[in-house]
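job 3f2a | input accepted
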Amino acid sequence: MVSYSLSHIAYVKIFLHAAKHPHRPVNGVLVGKLASTGVVEIQDVIPLLHHWTSLSPMMEIGLDLARGHAESLGCSLVGYYQASERLDDTALAPVGERVAQQIRGQFSDAIAFVIDGDVLGSGEVALIPYLPQLGSATGAWRPHPFDPAAFTPGSQVTLVNTESPLRAVALVKNDRLHHQFGDFDDHLEDVTIDWLTNKACRI
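job 3f2a | predicted structure (203 res):
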C-alpha cells in the first residue's frame, strides 16, 4: 500500500474551510502527485462548497475547474475532504463517497478525509482517513485502520509538519485568517474571491 503525506498548507486550508462554516457541511479536493518513493504527496487543497447536499451541477463544475487547475500545476486530484454540520458526525457522506470514487477513477490511490469536529480546535490532528473497502464492487469507503494509527510516527498517513494542527488553531483564533478564505460557493457570489489558490492564506 502507498503512503500519504499531507503538507502544512493543505492541512491549514482544510481547517480554515471548516472554521469559516462551522455549522455547515463543507467539502473540497486534495491536490498532489504520486512520488517515485511511493508516497502520495498531498501538496494543496481546493475548497468547493458549503451549501452542498447532493452531487449537483455546481459540484460537477467545481470539480472540473479544480481538476484543470491541478493539471496546470503538473498535479492531479488525489482525494477528497469533507466536514459535516454536526461535530460528532464523522461518516463519509454518500455524496462524498461518489466524489471520492470519481476521483479514484482517474487516480487509483485516492484517499478521503473526514474532519473530526470534536477535536477540531484542540491542536490535535482533526482528520479521519477513508479508503475504499477492499473487494467492494460498489466503491464503499470506510475509515482505514492504519497500523500504526494515522498521523502517528511510522504511519502510512503523516503530516509534513507535525505543528500544523496547533498552527491552524492559532491562525483562526489569533489572526482570524478563516475570514479571508473562500471556496467555490463564495466565488459564485463574488467572482473576485480567489478560491482556486487562496493566496492570502498561504502561511
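job 3f2a | The chain has a mean pLDDT of 91.
job 3f2a | closed
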